[in-house]
Amino acid sequence: MIANLPEEAYAIVEGRHADPFRYLGPHQENDRTVVRAFLPEASMVDAVDEHGGTAVLERVHDAGLFVGLLPNGSSRYQLRARFGETTVDLDDPYRFPPILTDFDLYLLGEGTHQRLYDKLGAHPMTMDGVDGIGFVVLAPNAQRVSVVGDFNFWNPRRHPMRVRGSGYWELFIPRALAGDHYKFDIIGQNGQQLPLKSDPLAFAAELRPSTASIVLDPSRMSHPRPAPANINALDAPMSIYEVHLGSWRRKDDNQWLSYRELAEVLPAYVRDLGFTHVEFLPVNEHPFDGSWGYQPTGLFAPTSRFGSPEDFVALIDACHRENIGVLLDWVPGHFPDDPHGLANFDGTALYEHANPLQGRHMDWGTLIYNYGRTEVVNLLVSNALFWLERYAIDGLRVDAVASMLYLDYSRPAGGWIPNKFGGRENLEAIDFLRRFNTEVYAKFPNATTAAEESTAWPQVSRPVEYDGLGFGYKWNMGWMHDTLDYISQDPIYRKYHHGEILFGLQYAFSENFILPLSHDEVVHGKRSLIGRMPGDAWQRFANLRAYYAFMFAHPGKKLMFMGCEFAQEREWNHDRSLDWHLLEQPSHQGIQTLIRDLNGLYRRLPALHQLDCDGYGFEWIITDDADRNVFAWIRKGNDARARCLVVANFSPNVYHDYRVRVPFPGRWREVLNSDSSHYGGSNVGNTGEVHTLDQLIPELSLSLPPLGVIFLTPED
């Protein structure tokens, strides 16, 4: 070992140099090219230039630091290193130019890099004729960042990175390969050694409990075929089947189905039942099964639980092949504090707020993104665009929007920090959501976004230019709570809850609503939907049939969680399959048949979907018959004859000669009856068609089935 080495040499050897390119690699000194290489465990190293000239590099530190002069003054060379009895030719990572361009750094600094995922993370590339992987990661407050992985024995001293711009660390590692596992080794601003960090922009990850990122070559991936145009339009039928991929169906040994196995059965099932869309609970990589994906650590990686990213492409493609749109639950509201994830990423609160009054969710024990930080907003917006571009996803449902909008969300008095005006609104989150929606619709005009927003925040689904948040749709949580409360009552008490059915129509067109019967309604002691129904066995199923028919007749797009379509009796359990054996029972099979027919009717009749989000498409006919628990209304389409009369009887009594006025005289055909024996009902109805009693004031005399809903349309 040579004495009196410069401080930089010791910084390299000790693995704490913040700019290794300043010392390692080729350097011009006194008109000569000096090469310095750090190769731990190497006993000898030569530099071989592009002409075959060889120079011995002197070992100047026992840890593996070598220095020498290049022959012929060339800066293109390889290193020939001896490890024990093996000699290996290596390309020196420290002789290659930067990865990020000055324009990249400008956009990154400005926070307007829409394709962040093309620059940050790990990307196969060719530099100066050499194949390898370029790694880039944001860590502005780190003292040193190294890449560790399969390609360097997970030794952080082998591949320290250089920092550029406002904290973007980068390094091209020659001969690293797609499929290699890797992480980032970071020394924080105070010199603290942090836990190894997964790549925030990794496209693939190990199966839990392992947490390494995996290099993926996107150029080798296929691209799903597109979904039908206008599948998300306001005037189109939209009936969503919400799915947790890990528990929809399982193998006999309770193992998950893979993405490809799901592709063989799920799209066909959804198509057969007539749903227009599937919505997957978050597929982003996440460490804990019990979070259902709502605590993601890998925003850009489909979870490895069910296969590879290419396998996930196959599932999306299979859905689109069946003309089914695909929506993803997306979680920009919070993230877990697992040590390998985003928390305290560079030794500071880089992605989260440092103050727990702003940065930690009380309900979930998770961390809140700092929406006031340019890099954070750029990451999240780019991630939304990534799923739409890379995987041809048709829309994103944004989870827990209310928790983002309010600084005092689920916090006690004094347990939150007001905004600059002293209010409770999270101004930075509002700006982020508006930017997210603006950029999604600008780049993907056929896509849609939906907000799970549980408060009365105004104009959630109105355009940003009109001071809205810009979402395409909003979940109607009020409708769900009110109507489930109503239908859960014993019919004898429903007259006291009559307004819970009426109230939703007072605001039904203030937003573009989706009516959600989601996973949240069948867990945590709430019971299944069939489990909430009152009465004996027959009444319970009749109640549920009536409720589903009411939902499909009500203005708004539809969403139903898996298992609800055949009246699963128990609460949903993410650790096991749905109870498919229930379909052997006629009552459960009847519910499934009803859902198939309701979806078919909803899609077939313009009156039931064309004006879902327009007040012109709805007219109350009967609202005041609380004593008999009866409601009636007309749904309308754009065409003057596109009309559907809906009469709901939420009592167990049969009503004959029940008079209901209609807009047109003549014949009206009963096109669906939830009490049909086809579905397990008592078959009380109107024998196919009825005629108006008076031509001047058209009125129908109807037989109303017990706990039943009927749909009638005018005949030409």
Written description of the protein model:
There is one protein chain. By secondary structure, the chain is of the alpha+beta class. It folds into four domains: 7-91, Immunoglobulins (Immunoglobulin-like); 102-220, Immunoglobulins (Immunoglobulin-like, Sandwich); 239-336 and 391-607, TIM Barrel (Alpha-Beta Barrel), CATH 3.20.20; 615-714, Immunoglobulin-like. The chain is built from 13 helices and 33 strands. The chain has an eight-stranded parallel beta barrel. Strand 4 and strand 5 (65-69) form a beta hairpin. Pathway: Glycan biosynthesis; glycogen biosynthesis.
Characteristics of this structure?
4 domains; TIM Barrel; cation binding; 20% helix; 1,4-alpha-glucan branching enzyme activity; 716 residues; eight-stranded parallel beta barrel; glycogen biosynthesis; EC 2.4.1.18; alpha+beta; Immunoglobulin-like; transferase; 13 helices; 33 strands; seven-stranded antiparallel sheet
Number of helices: 13
Gross morphology:
elongated
Number of strands: 33
Structural class by secondary-structure content: alpha+beta
Uncertain residue ranges: none
Q: For this structure, what is the CATH class of the largest domain?
A: Alpha Beta
Mean pLDDT: 95
As laid out across the biggest beta sheet, the strand order is 16-17-20-21-22-23-24-25
Subunit structure: Monomer.
Domain Glycosyl hydrolase family 13 catalytic: 242-596
Enzyme class: transferase
Catalytic activity: Transfers a segment of a (1->4)-alpha-D-glucan chain to a primary hydroxy group in a similar glucan chain
